[in-house]
Design brief:
This protein is mostly helical and about 160 residues long. The chain has a domain of about 100 residues: Tetratricopeptide repeat domain (Serine Threonine Protein Phosphatase 5, Tetratricopeptide repeat, Alpha Horseshoe). It has nine helices and no strands.
């Protein structure tokens, strides 16, 4: 059932012909198969609303999903997406705290760079542009075919030297 359920959810996300309301309705219908308190279903319902610009509706669903316990693949996504929604709702300090925790978490996972990107956005929203650029460059550096060490050093210097 899980693979089929996951594939059906993925198909909805991949369907560009759906508008926001249609996507929400389709995800809600599939999520209902798991019940009202299933963390994964709550996560998908939250994501559909978040994607539609309904961050306030998404916030409560993300929180319930996280409180209910998500697996290792979906927990970091829920943290990042909730924090992004909070940033958009003007709750910058809470978003920063969540994203900092996810960014600094060890061991690093497949969502570390995504956490870095959203952490950088939240830092910038909080007026910490030098720190935001440093976080973004630090995440980018390992992906460069050359200059990894140089870019990492420059990123560190952004937060060590103050103008």
């Amino acid at each position: 059932m899980t693979e089929t359920w996951d594939a059906r959810i993925a198909a909805i996300w991949a369907d560009d012909a759906l508008d926001d309301q249609e996507r929400i309705a389709a995800i809600d219908a599939i999520a209902a198969e798991r019940g009202d308190d299933d963390p994964r279903a709550l996560f998908e319902r939250a994501g559909a609303r978040d994607s539609a610009g309904r961050e306030e509706d998404a916030e409560a669903l993300y929180r319930r999903a996280l409180d209910g316990g998500l697996d290792g693949e979906h927990r970091p996504q829920a943290v990042i997406q909730l924090a992004s929604a909070l940033r958009n709702l003007g709750k910058i300090d809470e978003a920063l705290g969540m994203l900092r925790g996810e960014y600094e978490r060890t061991p690093r996972d497949a969502f570390h760079d995504a956490a870095a990107a959203f952490y950088a956005l939240a830092l910038s929203s909080a007026g910490h542009d030098r720190e935001a650029v440093s976080v973004a460059l630090t995440a980018l550096a390992p992906h460069l075919p050359r200059y990894t060490r140089s870019v990492t050093g420059y990123a560190r210097e952004l937060t060590e030297r103050r103008p």
